[in-house]
Amino acid sequence: MSSAARGERLRRYTAGALQVAAVTAAYYVSAKIGLQQQLVRGQVTPLWPPTGIALVVLMLWGLRMWPGIALGAFVVNVMLGPSILPVLAIAAGNTLAPICAYLLLRRVGFRTALDRLRDALALVFLGALGGMLISATLGTAVLVASDALAARDFWPTWSVWWTGDAMGVLVIAPLLLAARTARWPRGTPVLRWAEAVALLGGTAAVAVVATHSSVELLFLVVPFLIWAAFRFQLVGAAPCVLIASVIAIDAGADGAGPFSGHDLLAKMVVLQAFNGTVSLTALLLSAVITEHNRTLREIEEACERLTEALYRLAPDETFDHWPSSRRERPDHQKGHRS
Question: What is the pLDDT of residue 55?
Answer without folding.
Answer: 95
